[in-house]
């Protein structure tokens, strides 16, 4: 996981692959968004940002309330689906 997190483009590719896998097993967009929120919460608590993009996301995450954090998670999913 540490290697995936060092480069933001690599992280987006990794996340995109996981979103596609989730879709292929039939998870709904809502379920994928909930998983993205859980991943974001884990990263916030356990992982130090490795680049400026991650640092900006962490700062937004830290100032957001739960609903805003869920929005950030859903937006990350949308971002990687368009990549």
UniProtKB/TrEMBL annotation:
Spell out the protein name for this chain.
Answer: DUF3243 domain-containing protein
Which InterPro entries does UniProt cross-reference here? DUF3243, Uncharacterised_YmfJ, YmfJ/YflH_sf
Organism superkingdom: Bacteria
Q: Name one Pfam family in it.
A: DUF3243
Organism in which the protein naturally occurs = Paenibacillus solisilvae
């Amino acid at each position: 996981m540490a290697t995936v997190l060092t480069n933001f483009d690599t992280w987006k590719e990794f996340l995109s692959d996981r979103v596609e896998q989730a879709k292929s097993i039939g998870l709904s967009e809502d379920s994928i968004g909930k998983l993205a929120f859980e991943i974001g919460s884990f990263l916030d608590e356990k992982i130090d940002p490795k680049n400026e993009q991650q640092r900006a996301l962490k700062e937004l995450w830290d100032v957001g309330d739960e609903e805003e954090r869920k929005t950030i998670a859903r937006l990350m999913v949308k971002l990687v689906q368009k990549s």
